[in-house]
């Protein structure tokens, strides 16, 4: 990292050696692609007595529900990543680590998915509460990592493409905060009321995210057209 | 997504920030590469008594057949994806989700492959019927996701490279519809007649797809040379 | 595919839509990267009684040997792939399938590695013979797939970069044929004499490949400087 | 490889066929992305009696600690790889193999992580010592592979971008040597004193690496401004 803390890619007295974010993008695309595909490893043919396969496959429904929720969630994360980094011109060590934080938290989703789907299928009420809390905590962690990334980009407008409006990343940050509250709410509802309600929120949150993608920003732009 | 619904990449008053589909392509290539390679995880050395390895490896033949079928199927899906997106100039939120739908359904193939190969090896007739129905349903789902994507591209010619003939994506859509019928037929035949017949159809369908790739379009072009 | 069979990327009357081989390369790089990394999944901490870990880890030596051999082999395959496709300007449906054939056979290596390392550790002499035959057959299959690809490129010089000498791909084809013979020899020696000898050949063959990479071609060029 | 040993990409009498390191980068990004994501496969929902999930998840704490340490370590390796190859203009067969050596040793991390986390959870004192020795040896191996790569690049300044200062790679080499000593120290401390101390060093070393990234170089540059 240079002394000025903005980039480790500009050698003293020389031009940038290469497009700054190209490897960050290819590495991140790889990680998202693997995470979204690893989810399917949690779907396994049940080991059952001969003749019981259909029944056992149907009994796995929590695994399918968890798979769909997590697939949507990772997909939304990837779309968010794309929307954010399409607007970033330069990185630097700090942004690299914020990005690695997002990848770290997202990479925990297959584990959380596996825990919650196994708990819903085989566990008692206490296990199911544990399962939704684990999944919810990973959701909170993912939201926090995005919050950090968006906050950093809000405060480092110089790293962005010049055409990006000042209000874009604050709006994204607000969306991440809403996600954080959503997952926190799911933990509470799942723990105090019913784990199934938490599952429903886990499914609804990525749908909300998808629908409002850039939506909050559009809304604000309509209100403050010169922002 | 912009108010006009065509793209979220053009900031107000600015040019496109970057080649629109580059990350969609790199993410999709990653997912296809992982799916096609995960299939091999279903091939495992059998855990048997000493001296029984050869016999046990031969008894795994349904796993090898399922592996070859699914490898061909994922390969054909990737070739289709390449043929389609080589012709796409711009994406947008809707196209992103159609693409994520294709990746979602294709990602279920290793699971379906595992179910059918285990059912053929260890299950009774009922399990085998269940196995081919599961695989067939995933095939139907994959076909439906392509149908949606091709239909969307047929109706949004403005997203395409200008040199793409108007009849290209309708022809692809027809091919997807034939695939849908093929997998539905395999389910019926496998359920009512014999699961082995369904396996044969599962192997033949990707071969058909591969041979007719762009073939239907060529055929139509010969008939309507000014299309 | 066009009527002329060379490429499906040139729409009638239009220029090539995009760099022809870019997605073939990114997909193939993904598959090779996954195969080479999946190999490590065969290395697992042994499940043993407390206090037996060190002993059990040492007893796994065939797994380490198989891992190193297969890592080298996949690495050499990737280097060969890079050397070949750095010289290819245009693809087409046939070349796509030759490439998918190479990826198919290479993707079987983690399975074969797992079979041979388990057989060496837990099996009797018959199992060990089976193991080396399975690994050797996959090696033969990989060699055959390269033979096909090199033969195709030898006969389709028009797909290549103009600066590629006519003798390059015939020399590569000869190298693939030597590999085929090497793996066939390993099967024979492993089956008739001693499976350990086969393991040694499996380790030596990628080393040979690596050392002679472009070596045969250099040799021929020295003899026929105007080739 | 050419007779001069620097590159296999320049055919006799022709220009370089393509950007030299592009496939090395995309393959390496793929491998790092898979390694960092495979780590999560070691986190599995514990198979326990109904009602014991929470307790069992908490008992897995060594797996979480090992996961975090290894995630940081792979992340730092990727950042190092990016920092190094952003400065490389040309490769060649030798550099390819040094790079494959780095990928080989890094790919062993998920295995070592699995061994150490299982030993900390289920093993006795002897197993735990074995576990930290295995992890430490992989850390030594990773450091040695970087040492080799940095040493090679120090001696082949002609492969680098012209703006790279002469002192950059010697400083990186020194950092790799410190890492080697760190992991060797962890082995000693873990074996002779307490495995938990070794775990702490495994967590601290990537943090040290991250903080000093390019730091030693900056330090030297301040002292020798004309280097």
Automatic annotation (TrEMBL), chains A, B, C, D:
Q: What keywords are annotated for this sequence in UniProt?
A: Ion channel, Ion transport, Membrane, Potassium, Potassium channel, Potassium transport, Transmembrane, Transmembrane helix, Transport
Tell me the superkingdom of the source: Bacteria
How the protein sits in the membrane? Multi-pass membrane protein
UniProt entry tagged with the keyword Transcription: no
Q: Which reaction does it catalyse?
A: K(+)(in) = K(+)(out)
Give the UniProt subcellular location, in the record's own words: Membrane
Q: Which residues cross the membrane?
A: 24-41, 61-79, 100-120, 132-153, 174-193, 199-219
One Pfam family linked to the record: TMEM175
Family of this protein? Belongs to the TMEM175 family.
The identity of this protein, by name, is Membrane protein
Species per Swiss-Prot/TrEMBL record: Micromonospora luteifusca
């Amino acid at each position: 990292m240079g002394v000025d803390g903005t980039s480790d890619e500009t050698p003293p007295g020389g031009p940038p050696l290469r497009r700054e974010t190209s490897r960050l993008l290819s590495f991140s695309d790889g990680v998202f692609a693997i995470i979204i595909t690893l989810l399917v490893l949690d779907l396994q043919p049940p080991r059952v007595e001969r003749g019981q396969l259909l029944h056992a496959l149907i009994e796995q429904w929590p695994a399918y529900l968890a798979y769909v929720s997590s697939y949507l969630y990772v997909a939304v994360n990837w779309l968010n990543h794309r929307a954010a980094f399409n607007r970033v011109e330069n990185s630097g060590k700090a942004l690299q680590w914020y990005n690695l934080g997002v990848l770290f938290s997202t990479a925990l989703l297959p584990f959380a998915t596996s825990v919650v789907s196994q708990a819903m299928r085989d566990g008692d009420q206490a296990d199911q509460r544990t399962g939704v809390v684990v999944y919810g905590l990973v959701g909170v962690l993912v939201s926090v990592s995005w919050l950090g990334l968006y906050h950093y980009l809000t405060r480092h407008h110089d790293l962005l493409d010049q055409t990006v409006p000042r209000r874009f990343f604050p709006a994204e940050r607000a969306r991440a905060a809403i996600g954080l509250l959503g997952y926190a709410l799911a933990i509470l509802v799942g723990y105090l009321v019913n784990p199934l309600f938490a599952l429903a929120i886990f499914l609804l949150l990525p749908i909300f995210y998808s629908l409002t993608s850039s939506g909050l920003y559009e809304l604000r732009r309509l209100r403050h057209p010169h922002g």
